[in-house]
Amino acid sequence: MRIKYLSALALALLIAPAAQASEELAKKYNCLACHQVDKKVIGPAYQDVAAKYKGQADAPAKLTAKVKSGGVGVWGQIPMPPNPAVPDADLTTLVAWILALPPAAPK
Ligand code: HEC
Questions:
Q1: Pairwise CA distance, residues 40 & 61, whole Å
Q2: How far is the centre of ligand 1, averaged over its atoms, from the C-alpha of 26 (Å)?
Q3: Within a 10 A sphere around the Cβ of 31, how many other Cβ atoms?
Q4: 8 in a domain, yes or no?
Q5: Residue 21 has what pLDDT?
Q6: Measuring CA to CA, which residue among 57, 53, 86 is closest to residue 69?
Q7: For atom 7 of ligand 1, which residue has the closest CA?
Q8: Cα–Cα nearest to 26, from 100, 99, 87, 94
Q9: Do the domain assignments include residue 50?
């Protein structure tokens, strides 16, 4: 139990700098106007997105396309507008960051 916690912590520290850069991107492109990492706002919590697509090899490609062109119906009836202004490289980084988020802490 304790060891598991410690290795999770070590991992979190290791990926922290990259995570920070990606959160900056999410801010820059206004993703955070509708999304938060750990809370549903207008769009789903990014942690929930990570959990939903865990282990799905086609998730990065699918989600990159979805963020770019927008869409509706996966999480509810509120649509995500298209985000055509985000360069592909940044989009790939953002989606990889979202999918790598650790699951929500048990409540
Ligand atoms: C105007 C609000 C809004 C903005 C801005 C927004 N989103 Fe979304 N996003 C949503 C909504 C609403 C959904 C749920 C869509 C659905 O149910 O299919 C969503 C869904 C998603 C999903 C999951 C898609 C799926 O099919 O499971 C990802 C990943 C995502 N957004 C990433 C982003 C990123 C990255 C950005 C910034 C470039 C962004 N969003 C900007 C509202 C927004």
A1: 23
A2: 11
A3: 21
A4: no
A5: 84
A6: 86
A7: 80
A8: 94
A9: yes
Q: Contact 26/19 with Cβ under 8 angstroms? A: no
Question: What integer best gives the mean pLDDT of the chain?
Answer: 90
The structural domain count of the chain equals: 1
Rounding to the nearest 10 degrees, give the CA dihedral for residues 7, 16, 47, 23: 180
For the chain, what's the residue count? Answer: 107
Please name the residues in contact with 36: beta carbons below 8 A apart, sequence gap of 6 or more.
45, 46
User: Is 80 inside any structural domain?
Assistant: yes
The tokens 């865990």 sit on which residue?
54
Say whether 84 sits in a helix, a strand or coil. Answer: coil
Where the chain has pLDDT below 70, the residues are 1, 9-16, 107
48 domain residue, yes or no: yes
Measured from the Cα of 81, ligand 1's closest atom is 1
- Structural domain of residue 92, as residue ranges? 17-99
Q: Which pTM value belongs to this model?
A: 0.87
How close is the Cα of 9 to the center of ligand 1, in Å? 28
CATH of the domain at 39: 1.10.760.10
